[in-house]
Amino acid sequence: MSVERGEGGQTLGASIAGQTVVIVGGSSGIGLATARAAAGRGARVVLIARSPGKLEAAARTVAGDVAVAAADMLDPRALAGAIGGAGAIDHLVLTAVADEVQRIGPIAGLTDDQMERSIDKLRGFFFAARAAAPAMRERGSIAIISGASGLKPTRGMSVLGAINAAVTSFARTLALELAPVRVNAITPGVVDTPLHSDATRAELRRWAESADLPARHFGRPEDIAQAILFLMTNPYVTGHDLVIDGGLLIRSPEVKP
Amino acid sequence: MTAGQLAGKRVVVVGGTSGMGLGAARAAASAGAEVIAAGRRPAAERPAVEVGVLRHAVVDATDESSVVALFDEIGELDHLLVTAAPSGPGGDFLDHDVAAARRYIDGKFMASWACARYAAPRMRAGGSIAFLTGAASVRPRPGLAIVSAAFAAVEALARALAIDLGPLRVNVIRPGLVDSDMWRFLPDDAREQLFDKARQSFPVRRVGSIDDIGHAAVFLMTNPYVTGAVLEVTGGEQLVDGI
Questions:
Q1: Which of residues 97-136 of B touch A (CB under 8 A)?
Q2: Rounded to an integer, what is the distance from CA B167 to the centroid of its chain?
Q3: pLDDT tier at B56 (50, 70, 90 boundaries)?
Q4: Helix, coil or strand: residue B74
Q5: pLDDT tens digit string along A147-190?
Q6: Which of A242, A247, A249 is closest, CB to CB, to B231?
Q7: Rounded to the nearest 10 degrees, how much is the dihedral formed by the CA atoms of A224, A227, A232, A237?
Q8: Could you give the domains of chain B?
């Protein structure tokens, strides 16, 4: 084998240094991990979430240029105000809703309120995308977090699954409408976030690290954040649904002989 | 992508001597990996990479003993990317015979299979395999039936190997139109016409580069939770009518 040597250590993809990254739902989990990753690469990060207290606490854990704006994603006027305050936007990230697991249950027992709160994910993402669209820079991007229940039927998640499928479809259509702004969906599998109780997290970890999940890895918010940063910086990915689930969706039902 | 994230890793790109494979070899090298670019082309005739550390190896991926010898020589590795593909059969379906179809399947599908088969036992923990296909796997073009079938087979192989070889991760890059050597067969003005049409109709308003593919390849090598996935790097080609 012949050997060739040159200069190493270049950064791949576009730089986000100095760019404005707006994260709706940025006070915990995937949103917060994305804020840290983006700020770590020199972006100016604006976190938007409902609770001012949680937002301030979250922002203190982000090293770099970070600002916060408290707004309820379901209050179109307040949300538009918060997004408008960010100025021109390079990248918009719409992340999952915090208390999703409270809305899981068999259809006969789902309340009107549980159904409405599930649909709120699409409602809020719509309000955010509509408010941000005119402020998006031409080479910018939008990343929208969907969920594996949108692709794989999951008991108790009839409405949540339908909404995740809707959210992915929403992203693909925006990729066409807002071009050349790039718009992608991300479908995470099970991720270690505060969405789950401590007991559930321990159980999920055991499952994820067993042979039941091909990657044998309990997905971390940082893994999804890395994928979101990839989508921000690769100029040729749009209209894609990036599935990042450790192999959850390709497994067959277990049939033991 | 931050620099140095493949530091200390050994990456093998079969088909890494030109086009998208070269883009991936260059990206992995600039992320700090020791890269082995393997292909049929003799080392002296290959374009320079000029970043990081790159070793050249010669392999005929359609020849099992050549693949075995390649991985014997390399020893342990962290990541494998197979981009090698023969040129399409040309002409229409009704012009082809079984031998022509088989040559394509051998050059694309069996070569991918063989590289995975002989690399997997030497892969270190945290490793990954990726294959390169193309939009034809889901949106066929006239005269490319065997190419569509081979790409779809490679994508199915990736999902199956994600199960068989876990926790090794196995993924696919499905590129769209990319400005690479692949289009050299067209006269300059015809090629420029094709690229112009793409710039007008693709959502991103540009034609992909081999560096875009390299960036995607490094993402799939470094993210510990992505497996069994197809990553489309297409500029949104799948959202619009064909050109």
A1: none
A2: 22
A3: very high
A4: helix
A5: 999 999 989 999 999 999 999 999 999 999 999 999 999 999 99
A6: A242
A7: -130
A8: 10-239 (3.40.50.720)
Question: What would the pLDDT profile of B195-211 be if each residue is shown by its tens digit?
Answer: 999 999 999 999 999 99
A242 strand-pairing partners: A186
Is the pTM higher than 0.80?
yes
E strand segments, A102-215: 136-145, 182-188
State CA A15 to chain mean position distance.
20
CATH number at residue A185: 3.40.50.720
Backbone angles phi, psi at B107, to 5 degrees: -75, -30
Q: Which residues of B touch A233 (CB under 8 A)?
A: 1, 215
Structure tokens at A102: 């409270």
Structure tokens at B82: 């197979």
Whole-angstrom Cα distance, residue A92 to residue B80? 33
Radius of gyration of chain B (CA): 17
Which residues sit opposite A21 in a β-bridge? Answer: A45, A91
Measured between alpha carbons, how far is B53 from B11 in angstroms, rounded to an integer? 11
Mean pLDDT of chain A: 92
Mean pLDDT confidence for A54-71: 96
Is B167–A5 a contact, with Cβ atoms under 8 angstroms apart? no
User: In angstroms, what is the C-alpha Rg of chain A?
Assistant: 19
Cβ proximity of A236 and B218 under 8 Å: no
HEC-encoded secondary structure of A214-232: CCCCCECHHHHHHHHHHHH
Do the domain assignments include residue A190? yes
Dist. CA B34–CA A253, nearest whole Å:
39
Q: Which residue has the higher pLDDT, B5 or A252?
A: B5
CA of A102: how far to CAs of A105, A111, A117, in Å? 9, 11, 10
Percent of residues, chain B, with pLDDT higher than 70: 97
Total domains present in chain A: 1
Domain that holds residue A185: 11-243
pLDDT at A30: 95
Task: Provide the shortest C-alpha distance from residue A95 to chain B (in Å).
Answer: 18
Most distant CA pair in chain A: distance in Å? 68
**Element of type H or E holding A211:** none
Least Cα distance to A211 among A246, A187, A245 occurs for A246
Q: Is the pLDDT of residue A7 over 60?
A: no
Q: Does this complex have an ipTM over 0.85? A: yes
